[in-house]
Design brief:
CATH class of the domain at 361-436 and 512-610: Alpha Beta
Structural class: alpha/beta
Distance between the termini: 32 Å
CATH architecture of the domain at 361-436 and 512-610: 3-Layer(aba) Sandwich
CATH superfamily of the domain at 361-436 and 512-610: P-loop containing nucleotide triphosphate hydrolases
Shape: globular
Strand order of the largest sheet: 6-7-8-3-9-10
CATH topology of the domain at 361-436 and 512-610: Rossmann fold
Number of strands: 24
Helix content: 25-40%
Oligomer: single chain
Largest sheet: 6 strands, mixed
Radius of gyration: 25 Å
């Protein structure tokens, strides 16, 4: 657990004009007082922050969470002196951000979402460049470099080009560059987006050491609410205002008695989920292994009994609430409009039965290989994916997942082995296979300068749709994904959750039999992730085969089966519960899927060192 012994920042903070002792003033490293910031986008005024006030005390870790568009990045850029407030006062390390911006920027560490590493420079050359920018004295560089490289585990890679590092290693290098000047205040904007669970834990270990050993104060934003639970001080933003601020345990106590785990040995988990997810008594329902986690509006057991009486062989058990449960409850209470619901028909028992009819493989991979020069990105990988199955392909950054995806989508030819998709041999007829599949890439890959409507028209034409059929599918996408209010908006300016909706709509325009999703929810908030998986479960219920990579291990619980890759090879394959059973230990008898992932990767690395 991260930093359990750090003092919690108070939820009620003094404004700058109040009288405090000099010791208390020196204990405050960041102050926002009545801060507002707006932007103009086209003909719209976006109120990113509205009269926000809070302080951060020295030696604390403050986590800032909120849905897409809540104002988190704007807040961080204001604190880093990269933006000026329209109203209010911001103080950093006792200095005014509008009068002393240059002095502040020279004393803090700031790591934005897309840290500017120079990919054609080596790790060492990036460190030298940022040391020059920070004005770090040459006499002190060697010791600081050595300390940071040991701390981040990058010491063996100082001569490697930054562009050849894995995603997690790039994040650690970015963090090291931010820390060259030993800053008393470190601002981290979504530092763990797009990195695997093992790398996320390693990054948190680094932050923990900074707080304990160097007394660094840390303010960070994250879209992973389970990470915010590690912070002793959590601030929650929504639509530019503060919804709450407290220790995570304070938030969780508010929803005690409202969270349950439901399981039936006679009814498939997807049917339970589909039956309960849209009930007015239910705030949240999500698949966890072979069970469904349920959050109710009211803390009364009779409410639960009233909505699940028709499910046979049912077991219901109360479970402790999490910060994410509170987050979902609060945001749905605050929603200015109801969540977009899918217009597909509800699933039936026949579509989600416990023992479906035998299904044939629609994706077959036999001894697949992909070389880049002498380097094997994928080596001797074999597996099948069945019709209508949700199949997860997991692994740390650099494991070969995206390379495997690109081969299966016909975007990259294999160097060896046999791969078929929908009966088509990918070494002979890649273009024929592409007509049967939809592909949503890891990064937003649509045309950013085109409007939403123009992107839909382009991709429907690219998939061969014409005339009335194209107009019908374009209108379907605008309505089905709640995109009509944004039809003429520039796609690159959409909030991340709406970019995700548009990308999925384009991938489904031609109604494919097989859907490839490469880290589709990276960086989006929990509400957007739930909406996304609601749609995916409905598609799977209608027989669409889905293959997905993700670094959010909790959403991998939705998969029927999971394959974990490491160093280009297949490490293990099984259902989520089977994977978790393989990772049981005396110290961790009931591992989560993330615990199991980390255990299996650590075990593989130890065995590789021994051999």
């Amino acid at each position: 657990m991260f930093a359990p012994n750090l003092a919690m920042s108070p939820s009620s903070e003094p404004a700058p004009h109040q009288t405090d002792s000099s010791a208390e003033i020196q204990d405050i490293v960041l102050t926002f007082h009545d801060v507002s910031k707006s932007f103009v986008s086209g003909h719209r005024v976006i109120h990113a922050l509205t009269r926000v006030s809070f302080t951060v005390r020295r030696g604390t870790v403050t986590g800032i969470i909120g849905p897409d568009g809540a104002g988190k990045t704007t807040l961080m850029r204001l604190a880093a002196t990269l933006l000026r407030p329209d109203q209010g006062h911001i103080s950093v390390l006792g200095m005014d951000t509008q009068r002393e911006a240059a002095a502040i920027y020279g004393q803090i560490g700031y790591m934005p979402q897309r840290f500017g590493l120079y990919e054609d420079l080596t790790v060492q050359e990036n460190l030298d460049l940022y040391a020059d920018l920070h004005g770090l004295d040459h006499d002190h560089r060697s010791a600081r470099y050595r300390q940071l490289m040991v701390m981040t585990g990058l010491e063996p890679f100082t001569r490697r080009l930054a562009g050849q590092l894995s995603g997690g290693m790039k994040q650690k290098l970015g963090l090291a560059c931010s820390l060259l000047g030993t800053p008393p205040l470190l601002l981290l904007d979504e530092p763990t987006v797009g990195v695997d669970p093992l790398s996320r834990r390693e990054l948190w270990t680094i932050v923990d050491r900074l707080v304990r050993e160097e007394g660094t104060s840390v303010v960070l934003t994250t879209s992973y609410i389970e990470e915010a639970e590690r912070c002793p001080d959590v601030l929650i933003l929504h639509e530019g205002t503060i919804l709450g601020r407290a220790h995570p345990s304070t938030f969780k106590r508010e929803i005690e008695g409202r969270v349950y785990q439901i399981h039936s040995s006679a009814v498939h988990k997807r049917l339970i989920h589909a039956t309960l997810t849209d009930r007015p008594e239910v705030v949240d329902a999500m698949v966890q292994g072979e069970s469904v986690r349920l959050v109710l509006r009211d803390p009364h057991p009779e409410t639960l009994a009233a909505i699940v009486p028709a499910i046979p062989q049912l077991s219901i058990a109360p479970v402790p609430p999490r910060l994410e449960d509170w987050f979902i409850v609060k945001l749905r209470q605050q929603a200015s409009q109801p969540a977009v619901r899918s217009q597909l028909k509800p699933l039936t028992a026949s579509q989600t039965s416990l023992s479906p009819a035998p299904r044939a493989p629609v994706i077959q991979v036999r001894h697949a290989q992909r070389r880049f020069g002498d380097f094997y990105a994928v080596h001797d990988v074999s597996f099948d994916v069945l019709s209508g199955e949700i199949f997860g392909l997991l692994g740390p950054n650099g494991a070969g997942k995206s390379t495997t995806f690109r081969m299966l989508c016909g975007l990259l030819p294999p160097s060896g082995g046999h791969l078929t998709v929908a009966g088509v041999d990918l070494r002979r007829a890649r273009s024929a296979a592409r007509q049967r599949i939809g592909y949503m890439s890891q990064k937003f890959s649509l045309y950013r300068d085109l409007s939403v409507r123009e992107n839909l028209r382009f991709f429907s034409s690219a998939y061969g749709l014409r005339g009335d059929r194209r107009r019908e599918r374009n209108n379907w996408a605008l309505d089905q994904f709640g995109l009509r209010p944004f039809a003429d908006a520039v796609s690159g300016e959409l909030p991340l959750g709406y970019k995700q909706r548009l990308a999925l709509a384009c991938a489904l325009m031609h109604e494919p039999d097989i859907l490839f999703l490469d880290e589709p929810t990276s960086g989006v908030d929990p509400l957007a992730r739930r909406e996304f998986w609601h749609r995916i479960l409905e598609l799977a219920g209608r027989g669409v085969t889905i293959m997905v990579t993700t670094h959010v291990l909790e959403e991998a619980e939705y998969c029927d089966r999971i394959a974990i890759m490491a160093h280009g090879r297949l490490l293990t394959l099984g259902t989520p519960d089977e994977i978790k059973r393989r990772a049981r230990t005396v110290e961790c008898p009931t591992p989560s899927l993330e615990d199991a992932f980390v255990y299996l990767i650590h075990t593989e690395r130890r065995q590789a060192v021994v051999s």
